[in-house]
Amino acid sequence: MNDYQRYAKKFSLMLLVSVLTIIGIAGGGLNTLPASAASSNAYVYYISDNDLYRVPSNGGSAQLITENFESAYSLSTNKYLYFMMDENSTSLQRLSLTEPSALITSFGGDKEILNYTINDNYIYFMDTTGSIYRSPADAADESQIKRIIDNGDANFPSFSIVKGRVYYNALKSNSTTWVASKAKDGSGNILWIASGAVYGARHIQENNTTLSLMVNTDPSETEYSLNCMVLYSLPFNGGAPKAANAKAPLDTNEVFSGKLTSNYYLYNKGIKLDANGEYNYSTGKGYLIDKNGKIFQLSQSSVVEISEISSNKLAYVDAKGKAYVSTVANGKVTSTKMLPISNATAVRTLMYGAAAGSTIFFNKTDAYVLNADLSLTKAAGVVWEYMAYALNIPGLFYINELDNDSLYRLSNDGKTKLRLSADPVSQIITITAI
């Protein structure tokens, strides 16, 4: 159960840092790291025998960074590695990557930090007062930290940086939670988008022209699943935010069991919870809603995973472990192909530059790269629970259980595997463009 799914029970853990679900770690499932400029060169940071190493993504000698390293969420520049000590920590730490035998130091003074990210070589973080700060991520000290936002809602600390603006949950008139945005350097006026809150990266997505946000219009309700989820779209070239379904909000559990893509929100209509408060994907059916409020059925079963191949083509995995590719046009599904994968569990589309790269399905033992003709290239032994990738950096990085738990890179087309480490690896920490 991920942080978003906790709402299906009683969302009493509002201060959980949503960024903890961004990185894919050993045993934690395959997920994505924040976007960077497209680069074919990167460092992969990993743990071996409790020590932190990094290795070039194209192969080369591994470098020991520090011994006995633990972290819950890490991001880096070429000069510093930033991290939190554990999931409950509110102290941001950093480690120099250029100074020999460098010590771990705190960053942010005495601020209790709930969430942070790195964007264009600046680090941004929100503290428990709801203020958002930024600093050059490679700054020698804390003197360049600047508060850029002073009205964030610390109960909903998720924020994202998209095309030069910070999108965050704010307190309007010091009382009501609203989704808002402001220029990432703190200049200019606040843009008020919608009453309510956005719960993290899973509920905010962009395409070339529009930002989409799934907003909970009643975030104060922490006990029951209500019809309070509204999809908003915001054009990048200016214009007012548009609500797709303001008159017919969606059910919270149905929405939180789904996912936002660049052009649609997948939700599972009629899904129920099991005795343990987990989503019972054997109930419900998969539906899509677009930014104009058009709703149509995608699947006869609930959809566990979905990934957008293009604006009119979707790859997904249903509750029965079956994998599909569907074509969508004019608000309906025009064709669907079931793929020959048994017990599928996940699907991701890698992004490299402006366009989608490879779409890859997973089951419990292997990966399958989707080819242009919808045939599959099998990558045996690539297990999704031990995988990580970063937007705009080619390849999937995984721990190979068939080779002494060594670190490997799988090419985007699934045809080439490159061994990056000889020693066993227990965790992939982060991936950073060089």
Compute the number of structural domains. 1
The helical percent reads under 10%
Radius of gyration: 21 Å
* Name of the CATH class: Mainly Beta
Specify the overall morphology.
Answer: globular
Residue runs with pLDDT of under 50 for 5 or more positions: 1-32
By CATH, the topology is Methylamine Dehydrogenase, Chain H
| Number of helical elements | 1
Mean pLDDT: 89
The main sheet orders its strands as 1-36-37-38-39
For the biggest sheet, the summary is: 5 strands, mixed
Q: How many β-strand stretches? A: 40
CATH architecture: 7 Propeller
Query: Structural class of the helix and strand makeup?
Result: mainly beta
- End-to-end CA span: 34 Å
Could you characterize what this model shows?
The model is unreliable at 1-32 (pLDDT under 50). The protein has 1 helix and 40 strands. It starts with 31 loop residues before the first strand and ends with a strand. A hairpin with a 2-residue loop joins strand 13 and strand 14. The protein has a 5-stranded mixed beta sheet with strand order 1-36-37-38-39, with no helix packed on it. Strands 17, 18, 19, 20 and 21 form a 5-stranded antiparallel beta sheet that branches. It has one domain: Methylamine Dehydrogenase, Chain H (7 Propeller). Helices cover 1% and strands 47% of the residues. The protein is mainly β and 434 residues long.
